[in-house]
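Customer ticket, subject: "Can you confirm the structure for Telomerase reverse transcriptase?"

Message body: Hello, I'm evaluating your service for our small team and ran a test protein. I'd like someone to confirm that this is what the system normally returns, since I don't have a reference to compare against.
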Amino acid sequence: MKRKRDSKDTSDSIKRTKASAQQGPDHDHQSAPSILRLYYPQVLTLREYLLQATTSKHKKRRITNYGSGTGSSSQDADAGFVNLLDTVLVGFHTAKKEESDLVDYQNELSIFSTQVTGSEAKSSGSQPVLLFAEIVEFAIWQLFRKHTSGHRPPHVLCHGYWHTGLGEVKIADREKVENNHGAEATLPDRNEHVDRLKGEAWAALPSLVGAGSALILVQLLQNCGMFIPLDGGKNNYLQISGTDLSELRSLDKHNPTGGLKPNGSTNAVVPLPGKNKRPQIKNTLNTIRFVRHRILYRKPDLNAKGEPYFGLPHIHILNRIRRDEELDKNAHMLKYIFPRQFGLHNVFTNDVDTKNSAQPFKDYTLREQEIKLANKNLKQRSLPKRLRGKCETLINQLRMRHERCAYSALLQYYCPDSFAKENSASDGSDNIMGLATSSSQVSAYCRSVIAKVFPGNLWGEGELGAVNKAHVMHQIDRFVRLGRYESLMLHEVAQNIKISKISWLRPPDEMEGCKLAASDFNKRKDMFAELLYYLFDSFLVPLISSNFYVTESSIYRNRLLYFRHDVWQKLSEPALKSLGTTMFEEVGKSTVKKTLSNMSIGTGRVRLLPKESGLRPIINLKRRVQTKRNGRLVLSKSVNKILEPAFHVLNLEKAITPAKLGSSMFSSDEMYQRLHRFRTQLQQSENADKPLYFAKVDVESCFDSIPQKPLLKLLNDLISAEGYTITRHAQAKALGECDQSKDQPKIVPKASWKWKGKARVTDQKELFSEHAQKEAEASLGTVFVDLEGKTHRSRAGILALLREHVERNIVQIGKKFYRQTTGIPQGSIVSSLLCNFFYAELESKVLAFLQDDESLLLRLIDDFLLISTNRDTATRFVQVMHRGLPEYGLRVKEDKSKVNFDVQVDGRDVSRLPAATNFPYCGNAIDTINLNITRDEIRRQQNNTAAALTVDFSRSPGQNFYRKTFNMLKLHMHTMHLCTRHNNVETVIANVSRMFADTAERCFNYIRCLSQTKKPSTALIIKTIDDLIHVAYGLMKRKREKKSSDVEYACALSKAQTRW
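Agent reply: Thanks for trying us out. I re-ran your input and got the following:
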């Protein structure tokens, strides 16, 4: 009979550890945040990783027993080091160990020792003995040596380091270079993660691993991501080593191994550790999304009379090719339609250069230079076999049909001039929305043009061809009807198309009726996918944008409106002309060139946003303009990107001196804290039983009317420190991390990223880990990543940047340039802050009579709300604001003012609500009796919920519906609506009921937009509702206020009340 093993035998734990270390990707550390498992196939603790990397049984036993209280190695164990082994997480990709790694390591170590230390490394046996601090330095040096593109490897340990010298590879940190050059202001700070790893806590790592540890530890530092836990919050981590998590590609079935995101300058991803060749990027049909953004806001092509030209743009290949008599026209067209067959840049096998395009896929409207370079290596008549014969004939027919197509006549037939219709049936209204062409008319026009230009045999012959053509036309109709942020995947267009019987896809020498091989089928599928991509991306998109001005509106939000270019020209010209005479002055082109050469900020573009009865100007300061640099077209920084340092500095001053903001609020959520404090103050005084007088006023065109000189004087006094340091970091978490359930269907988490910046006074040192610790207190399952790009800015530099932005803001309207003479730029990231600081000064000087215990003043940008127990004070406030304050450029919109008591200004009554009512303010309603907060029901009923939705039509529709539902819920979960310390229970129950009703309405509209095959199943809908209640209850109980708040949050609703 076999003897039973003693339960205390340590060999059992060793075997279990070994087995677990060999299990591979499925043996992820269970406490790791879900976000890490989205980027690494394996996530283990540091101890588990070392066990997996080591082959010696003796070493495995030593690593396992270290700090466990058993074995000789545990007697002198450092508690801090033991904690590192069991809490530090290591994310890595499975890589085959190469035999040449050791040889390369020893050779490079010899070079490193000679160049950096000036001496040879001491050897003990086959490998040199190094301290862990020296291993860290060597790992950084080797990363720079292997890096071939860019100024610095995208690795956490390389932040703050750079190349020095010309012929040799050297690195230096801030301390070393300061001693030699003294250029302190222009050098980066020390890398705190390097300092951490060089500290005493990590020094014992080489001795624990034993002989041969250096190579294992170098690979750990270079090829793995290491994350340490943060004390605040729950399950939050800080990355201290490895490639920046933000630079990695997420794992999925098309990319199961991960790796670096593709570099814009190359057409390959960085290889995984242990692989020497760079794999070629391949976008599948499921990952290729048509870039619909290119149809938005496009200017028309004009003829000699200055009228819009209809049809395809002048620069389109079908228009250019007929004007060039020397070209082999068919071959040239084939290179545009089937670039992959000629080895040209294409959407399937190449990536986008992020330095010259902000879009996920390249614009192939002009590719003449690329074709010219490719032709040098090709024979003049070198068509791939499959493109000869029938295919070439069909493309020739396509060219001929384009030349005969009457684009203008078709446009007039399907989309008649809406101005002519409006004038013939005018009812005296001024509704701009009525002048837009309906999406069904636009779709009919596009389908008609494509039917006339593209030969029918491209889709197949006979009945099968008709079925394929009908499917393509249906997808064109869907493309036109999609919302602003919705798009179409190439897979959806290609799905259900029968390509086996399309004759032009066959090889020229193939007999009809032959059995179709898998390789032949895949080749045909690839070629037909190229045709479909050309149809949508290079024909349909320019067709829409050259005939229609496509824009969203302030009413329908995400729903797109299509205006014929001639109609939009008649609408926009008077509005643009008015802008040029009121708040802008025209600047000559020569003056613009001279001014821009001396400016660090570029120009913005003005576009007009349709409203119900007019057009509102929008200045686009997020746009990145292509400029030539070293003979190449590259994307320059946007105006808002250049202003980021000033934005962070203003935010710092806001945090340092909040009193300078007066009654400013940066979101409506801040209103709840102030209302609760005011009510508590009233209850503790003799004013508790007095009625409350409400007065709301709205400033007219606040950004456009702020005087510039007083604002700049205010900024000069506001910015106090002599120098600032700007840092950047990223926060990542997995959406749906708490949605995992044993029930089916399984919901896969999705990565969510936030990019943040922060300013601090240069003299005040703060490590990123300290800042991450503070941020983590309100986070759950979040990973914090320190990003490179730390900059130092002087006070004079920040003031000069803001002065240039305010006084020399140049915008382009049409083909002319204008300088803004009054107000501050709209669309700027600093505009709201500047407005708040300026109006806070107005409050301190003009509205000082409100600073008493009887009144509360709230202001969200330009919306003022006064609540007072003194009727005279409320009356005086309304009169002062309505009469205007010219020195501050303030003028109110009298028709939007509201009060709950009788008041007149210069003999005119101000719009009044009942004394006891829910007073509307910024989308919420405040009870004038007890200050309870609810949503503004009138405004809610006016919102078009369906038009505000963005439906994800891509793969995994059920999972997308599940995630979207929870996002909809979270948008409605505001602390001020759920807190029972401020609101009574009945109000909170009503708020929760409306919250669920709104979510249900949005879900209904979302499902209605999906096709029948993509609608979620009944089981998934029931599961979503059940999980929604559970998550809503959990969020209501877990919500917390910021540390600066003196309001203690509590929600007294039970789970039964929530479910009801």
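A couple of notes from the result: The two ends are 62 Å apart (CA to CA). The longest helix spans residues 518-547. Feel free to reply with more questions.
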